[in-house]
């Protein structure tokens, strides 16, 4: 802070309260440099980020580049990689198991994600109403998300859906055809989607935060105009919430493409029964670590990156027509 | 400023440490496996195996004995289940950091050997490693193109197990002596019919054609060696189709344990939960079956084929040393101890198969009626039937074996026909195995 003595007609007046608040009061007087550029600062900066930088280069950037290279090679971990051009990519599209894994993953993403988002929005709407003990409910609904991706839940899920498991017993009680889901290729996908939907806590919390942001005046005004609850939901809640819906849609779609551990546990690492849980990432793993086709697995990884990239780009493109940001002038 | 200097120092220190650590694994290569073991030098060996907690406890006991005898050697141990074991070893092989001594399987011996990952242990013969207690054919099973890459610790052979208590409940006799594959199929159908009234329902057997080893067993009985000397398939698509078709009636009439149920109880099998009367597998599974079912399990030779009841010994597992080990002499010494020391034989019993050396076989406490006694007795009984040496699996065997099992699952779910199975499997094998040189 420059010390200022009030010299009539000389030095500038002392900074105002607003200037101080804006941090402008400290502006160096002309010709008096308070802070110079010091190369040591740069060095210190690099030293501080070096753990992250090392990790990024060694554990992320280098492996990514390596896998990009391997995608164009035949590599079995033992022999040196042999360059084969685009063979791996060409092989992908004649490999029935690859196509099966694409189909399984597509069903999971395009059926599972909307259901999960609808469920989480529904839960968020319920949790947004005023009730006694609402905080407890919020915690309970969030709980599955904390443990849903874990190995133990996948094991419990499996146990619930086998012959004479909880689900089978309930089915018998209500007189529906009995039998475990785990051994039935037609029922494993519903089982996997249910597991995903059950862990709706993370999008629910985000939806809930979004709902809290919707100004109550809008609802009050609509109510005065005679709008019922359904009309209020579609005309106020949905448009006001659309940025949050978009965010959740992106995150959940991308994470659905990456599902691995639950399928690995439930199918015992095989993608069975009969390939019905052969998710893309699981098949990638099997090609790499069971068949030792690392080049092939790398090619698969890059195809996944490109596909997820394209889908994300398409979502962004379509978002212009259905996502409304407050303050947008159209 | 001061902070910056300190931080740079830390970074530099870390980098130096990393260099030092990597330098450690550089290897000195002074002493070979054939040089006498230095009993003064402080040596650390890594030992890895696949298996469960029970086996781990046995290994730890054996390692403790070893460390008592060689106080200058410290053995660090790791173990995981079968599947993860190979994932870990493959990754290590790629980076040249395999454990000094590791449990090895016949399915992978050629793959590791062909790629120069394993130490030729013949250098250590008569110095650090005594193999005089092993039969010649058995020892030969651990060689690839003249190099002794693994030492068999124990043997097993295929067998048919039946659950005598289950048979009594459903009123069945076990298959008669000298039974054939066709007899077995008829027996399974009959047992399934008789077991239909039980709760839970009892099946005669599983659709055994899903195991590649049984196909190899059957080929050998037909006088066909499954693989050529240079590691190629030596059977035709017709052979494979005929084998798969041989149980088509069992599948069509639902006489075999249902795949839907199998998938749900994995990694157990129908036999292990007493819902299946008989099952074929390796004879060292006896201990597991008895423990799992708690019932009276009996053991029979495999069914006879067209040319008779020939069977083969397979080294149930081998011990190998890494080609990159810094301590080849100590590694050979550890292998020597594990295969020859009578006390180690007593510790393991037949849990890894019947011990390969007479010294260890004799050391087992064979109480009459015990699992060890029955398995050892079985191997003595079938010794006359063993006229063939074990087929040395081709490189990539692990993968083609897994693919066979997977396609069989698709077959049971009726997603593929036998012809599609055969076509897809041969295509996969051609893709996976190295081409003939």
Automatic annotation (TrEMBL), chain A:
Cross-referenced Gene3D superfamilies: MetI-like (1.10.3720.10)
Q: Which domain of life is it from?
A: Bacteria
What is its subcellular localisation?
Cell membrane
Q: Give the stretches traversing the membrane.
A: 45-72, 106-127, 139-160, 191-211, 232-251, 263-285, 297-316
The name of this protein is Sugar ABC transporter permease
Q: Which organism is it from?
A: Myceligenerans pegani
Q: Which UniProt keywords apply?
A: Cell membrane, Membrane, Transmembrane, Transmembrane helix, Transport
Q: Does the keyword Zinc apply?
A: no
From TrEMBL, chain B:
Q: Which UniProt keywords apply?
A: Signal
Instruction: Report whether Methyltransferase shows up as a keyword of the record.
Output: no
Look up the signal peptide feature and give its range.
1-33
Coiled-coil region = none
Keyword Signal on this protein? yes
Entries under PANTHER family matching the protein = ARABINOSE-BINDING PROTEIN-RELATED, DIACETYLCHITOBIOSE BINDING PROTEIN DASA
Q: What is this protein called?
A: Extracellular solute-binding protein
Source organism: Myceligenerans pegani
